[in-house]
Amino acid sequence: MDKILELLDTYGLTDPVNSAKGVFSNPELQTLYNALIAKCNLSLEDALLAAATIEDLDIFDLDEALAATSRADITSAYELLKCGSENHMRAFSKQLNNRGITYTPQFISQSDYDTILSGTNGPCQ
Fold first, then answer.
1. Please, what are the domains in the chain?
2. Torsion sign (Cα): 107, 19, 40, 83
3. How many CB atoms lie within 10 A of CB 68?
4. Which of 12, 24, 90, 115 is the most exposed place for a label (fewest CB within 10 A)?
């Protein structure tokens, strides 16, 4: 968050983050957030599925954002965020697999998901 805020400041952009937790100005994000929070309250397995879904969407969005910029500072920040999301995806998928549940990606391709799972956690400082 700090790195992204630094980039927003560098490029003179307004920070879209609302100070109220769980409140989004984007109606699509608000709807998704509400649905995932409701799912998290059902069970641990549903919470893990919701968490995997969040990382799935984050990776998808970061891939699109990476394709849309050539600025090194922005690319670096996106790559670090993607590294973290991939680490989280591996962790959530492992926990789901330990419970006999297979996550099916909704945003990234199955091939990209399989590649992420076959990787190892990287340092994402």
1. 1-8+44-120 (1.20.1260.10)
2. positive
3. 9
4. 12
